[in-house]
Write a structure and sequence with these properties.
heterodimer, A: 432 residues, mainly alpha, MetI-like fold, two-stranded antiparallel ribbon, 2 strands, flat, B: 367 residues, alpha+beta, Rossmann fold, OB fold (Dihydrolipoamide Acetyltransferase, E2P), 2 domains, six-stranded mixed beta sheet, five-stranded mixed barrel, 23% helix, elongated, cell membrane (chain A), MetI-like (chain A), ABC transporter permease (chain A)
């Protein structure tokens, strides 16, 4: 290029037009800007086309999920309705014995809250940390509304002695700030002690970590089982003649088209102790009448039912990848001297990895968040973390706790996704 | 090299039949014997059974009936990986998740070869196809021609005595294809391997092969050297399929040894060489190559019959001029003239008289 006699050098200089090196259009405008302008209309049009979807996702997904996640660390159920006591907690460090000023603030706030009919909200918030205290708040509230004479400490203790409970005061202090990490601590079976130190909760209350472990373990097992069962079927689908493979595809998709409840109920019919499978086994004499197998309302039931439901999510990505694998690859491997097993292991299987990765990721993520099936067939040992989230949403109404558990679940899934990306590469994913 | 004797043949098909559905035969009674070091091409239109024959030889299809022998040993029951046959596929079938080097290493690894041995062989095979610098590339990073070379190198790296090629050049453009034809031919000569090559491209078959087996309808129509195939087709399918061909239907008027007179439908008489013709009065199809048709009386052998023709159009094709003539009532007769200085330029509508050397017109069975 440096050679002045080089014809290419001459062309390059002419095309450049100016000495600064930036390419320009024929009328002298920078090429980059001209390109952006020429494409901007098409881009704007494309954006307008996706705008409705974007708005839909924003309104129905991002905003509610964001709000829900916010609850996991932000709960003003106490602080918003008990302003004076919250102020006292802010002014006095942890460990300060509640003085008369504190009791006064408590009584004032209780009265105001009772009159505003928000005492229930306050009680619910404290009830998360100290079970059984909601009624303490509501009953005290009723009496405070009738009027209360100072000194307030004596008066309140007169209404209910539980007001002296240091655990209650510790819980109220924790709740006095709307932003708290306590829900996350609780979600990993930790609690903040009276002195602010973090410790494990009592052994019989440790449920969440165990549930998380069980959820991930069962999801792994289910992913593996769907792989073992789905791989041959996907292969069959991809290699059978069109007519037969279409029929098989309908069978694969049948679970998709059946109501989830119907599917789950049919598993109940099949698997329960007086169910079809046990009856057959007893009839065949494989097991005695007294040894009927417990195959449902435990982990086995959860694994069986969820594997069935999630199988298509493994089969479909595998199938779509296998369909594109030309049979001549395996033939080539065989002609080069590989046994059919070697040809499968070294040539066919590696090429199915994008589908396997996609299927495994799909099944695993779906399994981790599955709720209805374990709730119906899981019994107590087959419950997963999502059942606990549901319980907090509907029974205990501790939405913050539910949100914290869900956020941890989400974080774990995102972490897995990231690990997958690092190890396999997300661009190696083929969903269909 | 062209030895057909039973004992010496390297590859032999004996009464091989193949049916996929039990209703129809895709390959009907195939008998073929291929000598060691021979380059044999199976040529035919799609659906003629040529690829099925190749797949049976490779072991991916089983013969419904008959025997296939390799080096004197029946291989009907031998699985593909024990046949030791190199194969080049139409789409190359390079393993996309392996580099070029790993692709070549694969057949050596499954044979349990040591790493050092593998590396020398891979380097040698890559050099052989002038791809020495590409060992670390992935197949997707290579052009079609380069992939073709790698596929060739992979099929040769474990020194097979027999290499099968299934339309290996089908996906390449014309220039590259011609270049690769030359290279494959060159490799074949240098390595002394036996090659069975399948193609539907007659030009490819003629330029590369020692012998060509023309397939149609599950049978070998003719098995001969390229020049014989072109100049002495044994039936009208071969005459039609190989090269451009004029056909004139008629009946045998006179038959004397290796000469025949054929009366065309329009009553004219032409000279021809009888092939598979038994008696006078038989229906026949006379086949004449366009470049062997003459229209100047001084070029004709003495006593040759000539017939009238009308020039329909003349196409200028550079090296040749291609005239379409109306002969014996049909306007699809083609005559090719070399574009030489002083060549007579014909005009459309012009009335001429054409003829040919009797040896160039072959009276074939009417198909």
């Amino acid at each position: 290029m440096a050679n002045a006699l080089d014809p290419h050098a001459a062309i390059a200089t002419t095309a450049g037009g100016v000495t600064d090196g930036a390419l320009r259009t024929a009328d002298g405008r920078p090429l980059v800007r001209a390109l952006a302008r020429s494409q901007s209309l098409a881009r704007r049009r494309a954006f307008l086309l996706v705008l409705p979807l974007l708005a839909f996702i924003l309104i129905t997904f991002v905003v509610p999920i964001g709000q829900m996640l916010q609850r996991s660390f932000y709960n003003d159920g106490f602080s918003a309705h008990m302003p004076q006591l919250s102020q006292w907690f802010a002014d006095n460090p942890r460990g300060t014995e509640p003085d008369e000023a504190a009791w006064t603030a408590l009584a004032t706030d209780l009265k105001a809250s009772a009159e505003a009919r928000t005492i229930g909200v306050v009680g619910t918030r404290i009830n998360y940390d100290v079970p059984g205290t909601r009624s303490l708040f509501t009953s005290t509230g009723r009496q405070v509304r009738r009027g209360l004479e100072p000194p307030y400490q004596a008066a309140l203790l007169d209404i209910n002695e539980d007001w002296a409970d240091p655990r209650l005061w510790s819980a109220m202090r924790d709740a006095s700030s709307p932003v708290t990490g306590n829900f996350y601590l609780a979600a990993v079976d930790r609690k903040r002690g009276d002195d602010g130190s973090i410790s494990q909760v009592e052994e019989r209350q440790q449920v969440y970590v165990m549930l998380f472990m069980r959820t991930f373990w069962l999801s792994l097992v289910i992913t593996f089982v769907t792989f073992v069962l789905g791989f041959p079927i996907a292969h069959l689908l991809a290699t059978l003649p069109m007519r037969k493979s279409n029929l098989l595809m309908i069978l694969v998709l049948l679970p998709f088209w059946t109501s989830l409840l119907v599917r789950t109920t049919s598993w109940m019919v099949l698997l329960q102790q007086q169910g079809v499978i046990n009856d057959i086994l007893v009839w065949l004499g494989v097991i005695g009448g007294g040894q009927r197998l417990q195959m449902i309302y435990n982990q086995t039931g959860t694994i069986i039912a969820m594997t069935h439901i999630l199988l298509p999510f493994m089969i479909l990505p595998l199938y779509s990848v296998m369909r594109t694998i030309n049979p001549s690859y395996v033939r080539a491997a065989r002609s080069l001297g590989a046994t059919s097993w070697t040809a499968f292991r070294r040539v066919y299987f590696p090429q199915t990895l994008p589908g396997l990765g996609a299927g495994a990721l799909l099944v695993f993520i779906l399994a981790v968040g599955y709720y209805i099936t374990p709730a119906l067939v899981g019994g107590s040992s087959g419950q997963l973390i999502s059942n606990m989230i549901a319980m907090h949403m509907t029974d205990t109404l501790n939405w913050s706790m539910a949100a914290a558990l869900a956020a941890l679940l989400l974080a774990a899934v995102l972490l897995l996704y990231w690990v997958y990306d690092r190890m396999v590469g997300i661009d190696n994913l083929k969903l269909g | 090299m062209l030895d057909d004797r039973h004992g010496d043949s390297f590859v032999a098909f004996e009464h091989v039949q193949k049916s996929y559905d039990g209703q129809t035969l895709v390959v009907k009674d195939l008998n073929l014997s291929i000598g060691k070091g021979e380059f044999l091409t199976m040529l035919g239109p799609s659906g003629s059974g040529k690829t099925t024959c190749l797949m049976m030889l490779a072991g991916f299809e089983t013969a419904t009936h008959g025997e296939i022998r390799l080096g004197g040993r029946p291989i009907n029951q031998v699985p593909p990986h024990k046949r030791g046959i190199g194969m080049v596929f139409q789409n190359y079938a390079l393993f996309p998740h392996m580099t070029v080097g790993e692709n070549l290493s694969f057949p050596l690894e499954v044979r349990g070869m040591s790493k050092a041995d593998r590396e020398t062989r891979i380097a040698r095979a890559l050099d052989m196809v002038q791809m020495g610098k590409f060992a670390n590339r992935r197949p997707a990073q290579l052009s079609g021609g380069q992939q073709q070379r790698i596929a060739l190198a992979r099929a040769l790296v474990f020194d097979p005595e027999l290499v099968l090629m299934d339309e290996p050049l089908g996906a390449l453009d014309k220039q590259l294809r011609e270049h690769m034809q030359f290279e494959i031919k060159h490799l074949h000569e240098r390595l002394g391997i036996t090659v069975v090559y399948v193609t539907h491209d007659q030009g490819e078959a003629l330029t590369m092969s020692d012998r060509v087996a023309v397939f149609n309808d599950g049978r070998i129509q003719q098995l001969a050297a390229p020049a014989d195939l072109y100049e002495r087709p044994e039936n009208s399918f071969v005459a039609q399929f190989i090269g451009e061909n004029n056909k004139l239907p008629g009946t045998i008027e006179e038959l004397s040894g290796d000469k025949a007179l054929v009366r065309l439908k329009t009553g004219e008489l032409i000279d021809a060489t009888p092939v598979n013709i038994k008696e006078k009065g038989q229906q026949t199809l006379v086949s004449i190559r366009p470049e062997r048709v003459e229209f100047k009386p001084e070029m004709m052998p003495p006593g040759a019959h000539m017939i009238g023709a009308e020039v329909c159009d003349v196409i200028y094709m550079g090296d040749i001029l291609r005239a379409r003539l109306k002969v014996a009532g049909s306007a699809d007769f083609v005559m090719k003239m070399r574009n030489t200085i002083g060549q007579t330029r014909l005009e459309p509508g012009q009335q001429i008289r054409i003829g040919w050397h009797p040896a160039d017109a072959r009276a074939l069975d009417p198909v």
